[in-house]
Specification:
Structural class: alpha+beta
Number of helices: 14
Bound molecules: adenosine-5'-triphosphate, magnesium ion
CATH superfamily of the largest domain: Bira Bifunctional Protein, Domain 2
Main location: cytoplasm
GO molecular function, one term: ATP binding
Number of domains: 3
CATH topology of the largest domain: BirA Bifunctional Protein, domain 2
Domain Aminoacyl-transfer RNA synthetases class-II family profile: 33-496
GO biological process, one term: prolyl-tRNA aminoacylation
Distance between the termini: 24 Å
CATH architecture of the largest domain: 2-Layer Sandwich
CATH class of the largest domain: Alpha Beta
Keywords: Aminoacyl-tRNA synthetase, ATP-binding, Cytoplasm, Ligase, Nucleotide-binding, Protein biosynthesis
């Protein structure tokens, strides 16, 4: 491609809307244009990058025996109602764009395709003989994200590869899951990114085991906790660890003490001169289930620890059946206004005890009459602890479970693991923290969707069973930007060779010089013919502008038909390290071809 004929517009200044380097650079270098919040036009250079990523994804998927297909982006509400996710996706997370058609039928723009593919499986898979089978597609997805930001990292429209596998049993599912783990590792290795595979929360999608593939970068929205021995890595949403040991309690007898102005843990431990590890804090939550039922929850946890709301939400989802619901629509710490809707009298905020009386909860059709009491594992072993007294300005000390307080029946790990904690697998390993951009996520779904939609098959013994399912997603457009976030310098993007829009750029410093133009044209033709994808900068611009642009757009190898031409040579510069060498005209093609092959493999 000749730059003189391309829609090639770079910006001198950083665009105001962009906060992180990769976002700024992709805009400045003319790879994309913002159309609206979370919506981008992918211009030709970016489209080439996206296609290269898609090709790598495709080749790794095909190598596992998965087959490519293309599913509709418009999906009927009825399928989502069958799976039970319509409310979660339209109300709770509210992430799905919905619309109506001329017959007043409700539709959604696909944020993901479990429902559609399960409907396909229900129609087409009859027998165990057809299993296992794995279909994937590369397609634009739509999500009405709460906070679209960072360009392609969190768009409202983005490209994803999503795949879904169907199996006769858990062992076959595990096999495909392991194959996907390998395929995803290969994809990231081939695209040239530094990544980590981590244990992940399965969230609203349901199911058991899942792994996320994180590209390591400071701008990442996810936190990863890992150990240096390489044996543990998990998303903080899911991570478990050993909390620091609790200090022995200084209290020996049960007592209620006046503790004025100690509604915060910091003020309270300061006043009582004790460690927060000897305090049980009681945190109030309000959960709304999909049937409208509201439940007030008290979580008792060691006061130096924090509640992990992802873990809590999962626990509450598992308890949904007891309240006649199936999913959590909202989980919040009730503010004054929310409290006023159900509390019969002012709550002793900051002084709540594990046994806060149920008569604080008013009567209401949709209101569970009793608190749901949960104790985090960290609070269970405490002896002679301090906690609230249910009376403002007072705490109790020297309390014990089974004596002054009944231990809540629901005992769970709902604490947030933090860097510095000891690892579960080896207490001498200390958890470290890193930021990551989630690029891929693989799940073992089990039969959640197949059971809900009635996608069954006939087993070898003639009986019917729901299909076992797995699902696997890679953010193709997110990956493109994550690559930039991991690889740039003050002059611009440094593409990994495998996903660069072009491998090389031939820069003609002075297009008025016939010798320069002739050499450049020849190289341009020969390089492309040899499979080295090459741009020709034949614009009527100053040499300095051309060099700057070549660096900004991040093409791996730059060939300059400049001064050394008189010796039959051209200057070749590597974008990654700026290393420059004069190479004889006759050797340029073979040299670059070698470098490209070496980098891509
Ligand atoms: P996140 O937690 O970042 O919102 P997710 O858990 O919703 O991601 P999945 O539903 O597992 O993501 O989607 C699979 C992949 O699609 C993700 O790993 C990510 O790479 C990509 N992806 C998800 N949401 C977006 C988005 N809004 N913009 C760009 N890529 C996205
Ligand atoms: Mg998301």
């Amino acid at each position: 491609m000749r730059l003189s004929q391309m829609l090639f517009v770079t910006l001198r200044e950083d665009p105001a809307e962009a906060e992180i380097p990769s976002h700024k650079l992709l805009l400045r270098a003319g790879y994309m244009r913002r159309i609206s919040s979370g919506l981008y036009a992918y211009l030709p250079l970016l489209f080439r990058v996206l296609n290269k990523i898609s090709d790598i994804v495709r080749s790794e998927m095909d190598a596992t025996g998965a087959q490519e297909c293309l599913l509709p982006q418009l999906q009927p509400a009825s399928l989502w109602q069958e799976s039970g996710r319509w409310d979660t996706y339209t109300k709770a997370e509210g992430i799905m764009f919905t619309l109506g058609d001329r017959r007043q039928q409700e539709l959604a723009l696909g944020p993901t395709h479990e429902e559609v593919i399960t409907a396909v499986a229900r129609e087409t898979i009859r027998s165990y003989r057809q299993l296992p089978v794995h279909l994937y597609q590369i397609q634009t997805k739509f999500r009405d994200e709460i906070r679209p930001r960072f360009g392609l990292l969190r768009g409202r429209e983005f490209i994803m590869k999503d795949g879904y596998s169907f199996h006769a049993d858990a062992a076959s599912l595990k096999q495909t899951y392991d194959d996907m783990y390998q395929a995803y590792s290969n994809i990231l290795r081939r695209t040239g990114l530094a990544f980590r595979a981590v244990e992940a929360d399965s969230g609203a999608i349901g199911g058991s085991g899942s792994t996320e593939f994180m590209v390591l970068a400071e701008a990442g929205e996810d936190e990863v906790l890992y150990t240096e021995d390489g044996r543990y890595a998990a998303n903080v949403e899911k991570a478990v660890s050993l909390p620091p040991e609790a200090e022995p309690s200084p209290f020996t007898a049960y007592q209620k003490l006046e503790t004025p102005n100690t509604a915060t843990i910091a003020a309270m431990v300061d006043f009582l001169k004790c460690s927060p590890t000897q305090v049980v804090k009681d945190v109030l939550y309000q959960v709304t289930y999909d049937n409208g039922r509201q439940v007030l929850v008290i979580v008792s946890i060691r006061a130096d620890q924090d509640v992990n709301e992802t873990k809590l939400q999962n626990a509450l989802t598992n308890l949904a059946g007891e309240y006649g619901g199936s999913t959590v629509l909202a989980l919040e710490v009730p503010d004054e206004e929310a409290q006023s809707k159900w509390a019969t009298k002012p709550l002793p905020l900051g002084y709540i005890a594990p046994d806060l009386a149920d008569d604080y909860i008013g009567k209401g059709e949709n209101l569970a009459p009793k608190f749901l009491r949960i104790v985090d594992e960290t609070a269970v072993p405490l002896k002679n602890f301090a906690t609230g007294s249910n009376e403002s300005g007072f705490h109790v000390v020297g309390a014990n479970w089974g004596k002054e307080f009944e231990l809540p029946q629901i005992r769970l790990d709902v604490r947030t693991a933090v860097a510095g904690d000891r690892a579960i697998h080896d207490a001498s390993q200390i958890l470290k923290t890193a930021r990551g951009i989630e690029i891929g996520h693989i799940f073992q779904l089990g039969n959640k969707y197949s059971a809900a939609l009635g996608a069954t098959y006939t087993q070898e013994d003639g009986t019917e069973a729901p299909l076992e399912m797995g699902c696997y997603g890679v953010g193709v457009s997110r990956l493109a930007q994550a690559a930039v976030e991991q690889s740039y310098d003050k002059n611009g993007i440094i593409w990994p060779v495998a996903i660069a829009p072009y491998h090389a750029i031939v820069v003609v410093p002075n297009i008025g010089d016939e010798a320069q133009m002739a050499a450049a044209e020849k190289l341009y033709a020969e390089l492309n013919a040899a499979g080295v994808e090459t741009l020709l900068d034949d614009r009527k611009e100053r040499a300095g502008v051309k060099f700057k642009d070549a660096e900004l757009i991040g093409i791996p190898f730059r060939v300059v038909t400049g001064r050394s031409l008189k010796d039959g040579k051209v200057e070749v510069v590597k974008r990654a390290d700026g290393e420059a060498a004069d190479i004889a005209l006759a050797d340029v093609v073979a040299t670059l071809k070698g470098w490209v092959q070496e980098a891509i493999q």
